[in-house]
């Protein structure tokens, strides 16, 4: 008995199919490369020949299939979007609809390819209505882009599901890439092409038809710069424009168009009638209003939007003395009334390879494409003519032998092969004869066929000559360019240049006071350290209110743009910005909320910082020095240590070297021992920081006050409501570090000179 061994069946394949070990880096790189190529070629970059991205091309083709011609009716956008995503472009409906909406917005594209009916958004940035509410059809420009699709002008390829065919590129009887521009961001590359004027593009194309090596500088004379649908003023220099077109990369400065409207009585307002390309008007006005609220536009009083169908933004200056050019320069710097529009002519060439082209290469690529379309359409027409001539030849044979043809058709069971054998016909001719109607047998029809045959034969000869003669072909392309110029050029309302070519702006010096709001204020500081500001510089501040037990310390006049220097008894200077001081007629705020003055430090003095000025600092131990005010400005709330008082001493004063606007030449010191000493100012050292030198020798006393005086003017001090002046100061003159003598009769009992 023999036994057979059965081979066990192979293990079932793992769930999900074949599993291969692949390094993660290789797998990620391969998939990311595929994604990048798909994004570049099939989504983000336009084709140099028709200037369209795949989604735009599919939108136009789907609308053509729906017969949405310019002379026809409108259809719901939802119907178009449904056909596009169902047949050609398997992406989200919102993305496709947004692309369609942009093609219909006359402020977004220079030459709309879609004519919309309904709410398609506006220049304020409002979105279009839902696609179930809006309708659309093609424009004449879109129709020109697709002219020749039925004549084998371009290649077709299968759609994503293989059920239908779609054009790989449009015949493009319109220079759409430069006319409408393009924007796109792919993986590792991007494109940015501004729109241009069609008439100027045609002028440049004409030059290249005559001479393909025309210098770019000559082309730029015919194509001087972009032409934006929203107008504006192009203020880039001609050299920069020429360089951008020569390299395919660059940027253009675009400004809003504005004018001054006189209102009478010396008043005026500025009206902006055109804003830069792709700037949303509502956001622009909101930005200006925010700057106005934050006091960043001191020359501007108000902004309002008076736009209807046109743009009208009204800017009211703060005063009639404001220079309009300075105000607009300030707005250009801080808002989108001036933008930079990039140029990056990164496109897919005829082989589908992305690369950056200069303007001549872009124009030549369009002309070469039109040449290919002309050749293909001519050959297609020749094929049609050849087929028709073949049929007409059969008809003529039938008319010459009409009786025999009728006999064969009536008597033969299979007349077609008999006709072919009898009259030496082709299969096409025999089939055409058999499909003839009886009414076509009249004599008049025979004459018409002979005329048609002669006309087609002449056309056939002409087309064959066209294919054989390159000069004739380029002349024909020149005629097509002239037809574009006639239909869409500058002599038409739609084709006129909208963007003004202005000179590059010179350097406009905007004064610092124009950049920051400057407002006069009166600062009131109390002895307990409460600070507030009153608007303006009133002659009399009245009787300011203080908290119980508090009183006035200092009143100074300043501007909101000033820096105030607060000197404390710890010898530190604290910097306070004028616009940070609280306003109003209440008690104000504690100064210690603004700067970090210690609670145990008394407030000595407050004054407006004057760059370049000098001050004399002194401490109660009789020491001091001269310091430049620039060395006293601190960058933090903690202030800056300048005077370093000795043990037990405190800072007692800070005095300017030019009291009353005169150059002081002597220093007067007075102590708590009621001794007065006057000595030359040049005996005091100038330092950055420290304790300084001895100003007055004191024994069992402290320094009360110092002041810088002009010896010829004498020494003055307040006495009630009057001011007393002692002109003969010889009894108190001495050198620095002297002990001094008793002051003149009537000197203040608090041993202070008064003032600040």
From TrEMBL:
Q: Which domain of life is it from?
A: Bacteria
Membrane-topology annotation of the record: Peripheral membrane protein
Site (Transition state stabilizer) residue list? 132
Q: Tell me where in this chain the Topo IIA-type catalytic domain is found.
A: 45-510
The residues annotated as the active site are 133
Subcellular location, principal: membrane
Answer yes or no on keyword Membrane: yes
Catalysed reaction(s) here are: ATP-dependent breakage, passage and rejoining of double-stranded DNA
Q: Which GO terms describe its biological process?
A: chromosome segregation; DNA topological change
Q: Which SMART domains match?
A: TOP4c
In short, the EC number is: 5.6.2.2
Marked site positions, Interaction with DNA: 53, 89, 91
**PROSITE patterns noted in UniProt:** TOPO_IIA
Keyword Oxidoreductase present in the record's keywords: the answer is no
InterPro entries membership:
Gyrase/topoIV_suA_C (IPR035516), Topo_IIA-like_dom_sf (IPR013760), Topo_IIA_A/C_ab (IPR013758), Topo_IIA_A_a_sf (IPR013757), Topo_IIA_dom_A (IPR002205), TopoIV_A_Gneg (IPR005742), Type_II_DNA_Topoisomerases (IPR050220)
User: Known Pfam families for this protein?
Assistant: DNA_topoisoIV (PF00521)
Point to the regions of Basic and acidic residues compositional bias. 747-756
Q: Where does this polypeptide localize?
A: Cell membrane
Q: Region Disordered: what ranges?
A: 1-20, 719-756
Keywords, A to Z, come to: Cell membrane, DNA-binding, Isomerase, Membrane, Topoisomerase
PANTHER family in UniProt: DNA GYRASE/TOPOISOMERASE SUBUNIT A, DNA TOPOISOMERASE 4 SUBUNIT A
Per its UniProt record, what NCBIfam families does this chain match?
Answer: parC_Gneg, PRK05561.1
Q: Which family does it belong to?
A: Belongs to the type II topoisomerase GyrA/ParC subunit family. ParC type 1 subfamily.
The UniProt subunit note reads as follows:
Heterotetramer composed of ParC and ParE.
Official protein name in the record? DNA topoisomerase 4 subunit A
Encoding gene (name): parC
